[in-house]
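Example record

One chain of 273 residues, shown exactly as stored in the release files.
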Amino acid sequence: MKKALCSLMLAFVCIGAMAQQKPLIGISTGYSASDNSASVRFTYVDAVVNAGGIPVLIPLTRDSLAAAEVINKVDGLILSGGEDVYPFFYGEEPAGALGGVNYERDRSDMWLLQTAVKLNKPVLGICRGEQLTNVTMGGTLYQDLPSQFPNRPVLQHGQRSSGTLPIHHVNVVKDSHLYEIMQQEQLAVNSFHHQAVKDVAPGFKVVATAPDGVIEAIEGFPQYNILAVQWHPEYFAQQGEAQWIKIFEDLVQRAGGVQSTLKKPNIKQPRIR
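Predicted structure tokens for this chain:
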């Protein structure tokens, strides 16, 4: 009996150790001022779970130190989709076709990203998350593709069908981390945006483009532990599609070996240019 009890205790210890090894993946959430609430689609949550991570929702914060402490506790970060990025952050006046913006959310997500960069925590930017990553790191955006992109007419980047259906292709640069993950030079993706990367941030490179030339993915390796895509792979990953779970598995794997300590946040107010 004593031997059986010891074996059972050892099994619980092993299970606990395995659970502790699962990386905590922070997911930025949207913010609604009208009802003072934070939320995110379950597609992100399920994608992280399906990839072997533990999802942790991060609400908007108005305190840069709080944002820094949150990132210190998690092992990786997903910057989720949402509104247009506030154009003053990249030195532009608002275009006529600019959609709704959320200054407080932009600022909060920028603090999260700045801390992740300082601690070399891995980041996955999705849709708005790619755009905000590019702006935070010094790049600019097309505020509205239909009216500003030089190669018009553009493809339908704001699809009206379900997010579980791909709407156009993207071409992947073979010499890239994205290609290492997907092992394909062309991907069929969904698309829900009217803004896109214009001037790429220093230290980043373009690793995927749509047939019309719109930038669809950027990455910062080896200088920055960041991959950012314009489409929404979480829709496919939630459905259990192994090909698309790979992107989240990559984030989980990059997060697995992180052992950083936040010594001094040194987070700046996001600069309005």
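Notes: The longest helix spans residues 2-21.
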